[in-house]
Design a protein that fits this description.
With 139 residues, the protein is mainly α. Helix content is 68%, strand content 0%. It has 2 domains: 77 residues, no CATH class; 60 residues, Leucine-rich Repeat Variant (Alpha Horseshoe). The radius of gyration is 15 Å and the shape is globular.
Amino acid sequence: MDIDEIKKILIEGNNNEKIDILSYLCDVFESYNKSIKGFEELLEFLISFTLETQDDDVKDEALEAICKAAVYQDIDKVDFNDFEKNIAEVPMKFLSRYIDILSYTHNRKYLDTILQFRNHENKYVKNAVEEAIIEIGGK
């Protein structure tokens, strides 16, 4: 499936179609295939799509796809700055996932942003911060 077809489904499809294509992307990203055509473009599209989508189920599956990509693929060339810029507006139920994803970049520039949640009242968010510190190699 090509990027334009995936984008079209994510923009125009119903929620079930969106969740199906995002689940498919989870499988593709988890496959260890390091030569996914247009990977960086696709992942940056998924990042902006995730920030814009209002449906929690679709957002959850999109975050899962991004997480799989971050764990199993080479994300060094992907720009995650929009995740960082919007982290203060992220609903609490997704905050720990955003922190996890930023930590998987291993980019120290995100550490100060992540650390602002170190004393968060939610134990899952606090735990994500502590794990992110280890993942990024901070203190």
